[in-house]
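Shape matters. As here.
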Amino acid sequence: MKNYVFSGACIGLLTSFSATGVTLAQSAKAATYITDEQVKAVNALPGVDRQLVSVDIGKLNEAVGIIHRGPTAPPAAGPSAAGGAGRGAAAVGEPCGEQASTPPAAGTPGGISHDHQTETYVIVSGGGTLVTGGHIVNGRKSAPDSEVTKVLNGPSCSGIIAGNDVVKRVVKAGDIVIIPATVPHGWTDITDHVDYLSVRPDPDRVLPAGYVNPAIKK
């Protein structure tokens, strides 16, 4: 059995997943443990979204990532505002979402939606305003060979979040948010930082099981 355990506020949620038989090996009958020290080691790496592991738990794969976001900057104007929610850098892909000649004035840039992946955020430290719902405007698909597509989230669409059903909620350490697949999401008003775990069930097995971040691979 691999030696990987979350501690503190996160252990309750992740223990419930482990109890179903998470494993990094060939069987779905062994638990996967990720230590607090291993999470911190990966979170200290460069970048924003870093996958910890992706495992086969029987009927589906499940991944866990750790994300660190620094202070949000004032939104950029124009098409370049369609970012990728700070995930792995990738070449500009094909258009997706609604295409508009004039970007919506009230939109939130830097949003993303995932074609297949639901995410559960567990806020570890810091906070900010999480933007969810609506639809993507002037989006771009993640490239097939990008980190987003191959390691983190599977096929995704990044762009501006807009719409009458957009929800903006301030979140803080200890909060938990479930974001279904295809629901746009992004961040604003991060004054210092926000760190959070993302638990990522993968019923379609879009991402391969067996991934372990090189920083904690033994």
